Amino acid sequence: MIDPVQFFTERFPLTVRDIETLLGAALSRGGEYADLYFEYSVTNSLGLEEQIIKQAGRAVEQGVGVRVLMGERTGFAYCEAITREAILQAALTAARIADSPREVGPIRIDPTQPSRDLYPVEWVVGQQPMANRIQMLQLVDQTARQADRRIREVQAGLTDEYKVVLIATSEGRLIGDVRPLARIRVSCIADEDGNLQSGVSGGGGRVGIDHFNDELLTRYAREAARQALVQLEAEEAPAGTMEVVLGPGWPGILLHEAVGHGLEADFNRKGTSAFSGLIGQRVASELCTVIDEGCLPHRRGSLNIDDEGNPASQTVLIDRGILRGYLQDHLSARLTGASLTGNGRRESYRHLPMPRMTNTYLLAGETPPEEIIRSVRRGIYAVQFGGGQVDITNGKFVFSASEAYLIEDGRITAPVKGATLIGDGPTALTRVKALGHDLALDEGVGICGKDGQSVPVGVGMPTLHLSEMTVGGTR
Amino acid sequence: MSHDVTRDWIASIVERACQSGATDAEVLAVSTREFSVEVRMGAIEKLQEASSFGLGLRVLLDGRQASCSTSDVSEAAIRELIANAVEMARSTSIDDAAILPEPDSTDSEEDSPLLSLFDPAIPQMETREKIQLALRAEDAARSSDSRITNSEGAACTTIERNVLLHTSRGLGGQYATTQCGLALAPIARDNQQMQVGYWSDRQCQLASLASPEEIGQEAARRAIRKLGARKIQTCSVPVIFDAEASASLLRDLFEAVNGAAIFRRASFLVGQLGEQVTSPLVTIIDDGRLPGAIGSRPFDGEGCRTRRTPVIEQGRLHHYLLNTYTGRKLQLPTTGNAVRSLTGPPVVGVGNFYLAPGTFAPTEIIASLDRGLYVTDLIGFGFNPVTGDYSRGAAGWWIERGEWIHPVEEVTIAGNLREMLRGVEQVGNDLRFRGKIAAPTLRLDRMSVSGT
Questions:
Q1: Residue of chain A whose alpha carbon sits nearest to that of B237
Q2: According to the model, what pLDDT value does residue A283 have?
Q3: Angle between the A130-147 and A214-232 helix axes, to the nearest 10 degrees?
């Protein structure tokens, strides 16, 4: 396995003593806290379309971000060159946020290791088994085309990344992580007499590409084809407020948008979230317990340590309907006196850390999912979603169904076209009437955007019954 | 490190790639200097400053294509970059449409100064000035109304970018751009509600940037006017999109005229060139050469000269937006819309993509509405370019007999983009560029509004 301290000090002209000196430079204007974030990543990508491998690529990224904190102020600079001179320049730039006569003594850092490895994957720098990868995409393509003669176009992409990070803080910590991340995406176009419809599927996690065995690849391909074919039959979706049943797994994007973002500590520290000041209050039905957990093995949103060097953890956000906690990063925890939760994340060395979700899920209930469907007279059953978005301040959120059905007299009937669902975060989950016993986590393709930064995340949920929600159809 | 990066140097990388087995090669080098300051509630919250560099190499081996990128310009890294790209290209398939464009007589970079993309005043701005701009914008918002009680902050960002491109067919060149942006999000509060208003401006020329007071007051106005918002009953009514919301419609339409979606048959506009696809009031242009505009550049991501392309003229679809690859797939010439990131083959992107202004003042359009929804905010990703189906979260105002009745939130608006654009009844005269995509106020004959 790669040791991040060794990786950076051997690959670049830099020692642990140099890092201490650089942290000292970052605090040379009297800053209260500084950290250095070293990153080296290699991302491989391969794309198939029109039954041929159309593109292959590799991106190598390396750099260091230097951050200095002074009260609520942050100074930040970065450089790509991992050399003493370049980092010193960045450190002195970031240092300027502070202007205090406070003298900072010598900084000593001690290398430590994360207490666990949630995603041990062998990685050799430069390794590239191309033939394997090509076969994977060809299998996906053939399987999707064989699913039905109406499948006309198939696009498949494989991306895998290895990222080595090392975090040094002025509090004396030096800790690193090696993070694999792989993802397959399949999209199909079905064509029936000029009626064109699309379907998208895929999966992944903090895994190497050997995770994608034939069984998984076949499943992704069939799923994308199935979704496109279902849409060929879809009717106009209904409009108005009605009962909604969400399927297990990826529909957990509901939690991510309805409550997750609103519980990030930065918004709550500033009082700009619809959830500000609601700790201890009821924000969901007592059936609902919502958890953010960064320490699930091999999940897409998991982290051994967050991007500030703190261990990822399990945080109960909502306990039987009562709001319990926020997702913290170093800055918000320090300013509000809260305990760290290991949710300080950043897209890269070019970005500042912020409180972010990891894997967010809702615990299972006890009701058989069939029973939930049977209990609905008229409503919709939504099982696949595209993206979602939330207005943190007024709490209104949307998420867009890409596969949904009508429920009529307790039975699932016709498929309906994609429709956006809209709700109010602090009250949406108070309308949860029943939860299935079928908790599932998503397939591992989620990307969350906040303030221009993208990070990988996961969601999960059992079948969930909402007594009402607004469905944005046309009929 | 950017001082070492010259056209000659990247040309030498192209040459070395060709000596290593590539039949064609293209190198893109981008140097960026970025500065941003964020203030919140009258105090500095973040200062950020950095210079960065990236180099991307695309190689072709008789129709086999690969691309690799690095931010490390050491000789060892460049050697590895070339070796990787050539080796990876050997494993891909032959794709007849994958070629580099040839120079033609109109390709030249001589007129790049005429595009006014670089303003020396921006690199010369002092940190103090940028902090002042952000503080003034936030202060203008906070002092404009006592109900503005909080703020997500205000940011002033400057970017200087230097782009170099060279291809083995002799295309390429160099250009520099600047940008200065000012954005803020003040928060309004009454007894019942908290609402955020977001507003920004972004320009290549500092003198074109709206004043911080104007930007701040507009952001405050957008927050205040949402206070008291409520749901409305599900209905089917005429809808007015304000200029912001109209621009988002154009963002969606771009996906459907993107040549990549057309050759994949993943657009509801496949096979419709020459046909009437929208109301005759609609004219949509992509112009990569508007002087001083954020989306302008002298040549595109493959080195082809940028141009003005009428996409829809008085409702008739004239052109898809294309790069060399998608053009070949469709047997059409490129429209100079190649966008190249450091990794990956060129994709299709917009220059300055806009809906041409009409004759109506926005107030006239509102005054003419008997009963309907005025949309100011849209959220979500509910657009399917394959079918045109459209369904998004919306907020705005309920209008009756031309009067503002009350603000609206937590509703969705739904329809089909084809039908929506066919139903354009009035086009506003309020076109202003604050980014690459812009549109004036639009009135649409009817959409489904889903509420209680």
A1: A474
A2: 96
A3: 30
On whether both A211 and A261 belong to a single domain, the answer is no
Instruction: State the pLDDT confidence band at B295, using cuts at 50, 70 and 90.
Output: very high
| Domain assignment of residue B82, yes or no | no
- Rg, Å, chain A Cα set: 24
Residue in A closest to B197 by C-alpha? A393
B260 touches chain A (CB under 8 A): no
Q: Do residues A200 and A302 share a domain? A: no
Residues B149 and B277 placed together within one structural domain of the fold: no
**3-state secondary structure at position A255:** helix
A75 touches B at CB < 8 Å: yes
Report if residue B99 sits inside a domain: no
Domain encompassing residue B209:
112-223
Measured torsion, CA atoms of residues A201, A204, A209, A212, in degrees rounded to the nearest 10: -60
**Dihedrals phi, psi of A223, to nearest 5 degrees:** -65, -45
- Asked if B448 lies within 8 A of A423 by C-beta distance, the reply is no
How far, in whole angstroms, is CA B18 from its chain's centroid? 34
Residue B111 burial (10 A CB sphere; 0-12, 13-18, 19+):
exposed
**Residue B395 region by backbone torsions, left for phi larger than 0, else alpha for psi between -120 and 50, else beta:** beta
- Which residues does chain B have within 8 Å of residue A90's beta carbon, measured at their own beta carbons? 50
pLDDT at A124: 65
Tell me: pLDDT of A158 over 90. Answer: yes
Instruction: State the smallest CA–CA distance between residue B117 and chain A in angstroms.
Output: 24
Residues of B within 8 A of A191 (CB-CB) are 265
Section B120-140 average pLDDT: 97
Global pTM value:
0.94
Kindly list the residues from chain A whose CB atom is less than 8 angstroms away from the CB atom of residue B52.
Answer: 63, 78-80, 350
Is B62 in CB contact (< 8 Å) with chain A? no
Overall average pLDDT of the A269-279 stretch: 94
Chain position carrying tokens 């850092």: A109
Q: Tell whether A274 lies on the interface with B, counting CB pairs under 8 A.
A: yes
* Closest partner CB to B265 (pick from A80, A189, A400): A189
Q: Which residue of chain A is at minimal alpha-carbon distance from B228?
A: A394
**First vs last C-alpha separation in chain B:** 59
| Contact across the interface for B84 and A58, Cβ inside 8 Å | yes
- Indicate if A180 and A287 belong to the same structural domain: no
Residues of chain A numbered 386-405 and touching chain B (CB < 8 Å): 386-394, 396-400
For B35-90, the pLDDT digits (tens) are 999 999 999 999 999 999 999 999 999 999 999 999 888 899 999 999 999 999 99
| Digit-coded pLDDT (tens) for A352-406 | 999 999 999 999 999 999 999 999 999 999 999 999 999 999 999 999 999 999 9
Inter-chain touch B264–A90, beta carbons under 8 Å: no
CATH number of residue A44's parent domain:
3.30.2290.10
The pLDDT mean for chain A works out to: 95
Q: Is the CB of A22 inside 8 Å of chain B's CB atoms? A: no
* Residues A287-307: tens digit of each pLDDT: 999 999 999 999 999 999 999
Give burial (CB, 10 Å; 0-12/13-18/19+) of A376.
buried
Q: Quick one: pLDDT band at residue A423, thresholds 50, 70, 90?
A: very high
Identity of the residue in B88, B411, B413 whose CB atom sits nearest the CB atom of A58: B88
